[in-house]
Amino acid sequence: MLPTFERCYCQRSKEVGNAYSVIYLLIFLLPLLVAAALVPVARWLSQQLGIVAVPGGRRKHQGLLPKLGGIPIFFGYLVGILLIYWQLPPLDNRLPLRGVILGTIVVFVGGLLDDRFDLAPRCQFLLQFVAAIIANYHIAFLERISNPFGGSADLFLFQITPTEIIFATPVAWAITIFWIMGMMNAINWLDGLDGLAAGVGTIACTVFALHGFLNLGQTTIAAFPLALAGALLGLLFFNFAPARIFLGSAGVYILSYNIATLSFLAPAKFATLLLVLALPLLDGLWRIIDRMRHGRNPFSGDRGHLHFMLADSGWPTQRIVLTYYAIAIMLGAVALFAPSGLIKFGVLAVLGVVILGFLVWYSGRKSR
Length: 368
Fold this sequence. Notes:
Elements: H1 4-49, E1 52-53, E2 65-66, H2 70-87, H3 95-117, H4 121-137, E3 144-146, E4 153-154, E5 158-160, E6 164-167, H5 169-190, H6 196-216, H7 223-239, H8 248-262, H9 267-276, H10 278-293, H11 306-312, H12 317-337, H13 341-367
Antiparallel strand pairs: 1-2, 3-6, 4-5, 5-6
Helix pairs in contact: 1-2, 1-7, 2-7, 2-8, 3-4, 3-8, 4-5, 5-8, 5-10, 6-7, 6-8, 6-9, 6-12, 7-8, 9-12, 9-13, 10-13
């Protein structure tokens, strides 16, 4: 039998753990319920303002569909953030998360403007650049990543330690701008089939949260992707095929900006994001290369992405989307349970070769 003090301590620890479990459950469920409840409002507002997606171009949906899905996501996520600040222990350094929240507001407003007025590409790039600068200014940038190889070196623009690679501030700023803008465009390209971007985003955010809880002990930071996952899932009930509402630019920007910036708040999360989103990221990279070699704008939209090619080959939308979900879940499991960073790097390298090789082969097959 345990001594009285130890019994009291264990009982107290169990009570605290149970209390936090309830809080985390609420941080997930309240955004989900708020987002789901706001979908009818967003649909009505879309129709009243004429902010609807017209069939044609990349999309082949039927009829006019509302595209203000960013509104339920934003307000659901906001409820989760307020609950986090109210119930969870304060962080020693709140500045990076303040930058994430401020940037989220900026991209939400900018995304709504794009949904309403179809902004020119240069205006969208300017919005993405401003959001990246906000992240940098609030120290939500990629300052260091895990070093899976070991060894040490002190070079001009970065320093290598046995556990980390640390970038000089100018390099960190440049990488952050490139990463955030690249992620916002990659997720925008992924948002081509009903439920694809919202579902993959929900999986990525859930893996982020689990990674923070299980491997890093980041009980407060990990609650942010958990709240966003709840808001995304609340919309996904109405966005899965056949969709009744689209994410729109506002929804895509909220999702992509948050997963890009939250991946900076712990070194190992960057590798986690690369693994979970390996397929859409490599698909986006291949499209950029393919457009450039054909003399086209590398950031123009087309139906050359893998999910579009599969749809044009006769695959049902649900099968394509569920396949993407399954791949994201499997890679998320690797990110969570791989015993070392070197194994994650090896899996990512093999995946890169296999996926890019398949995309090159499949694109050539479709063009014949």
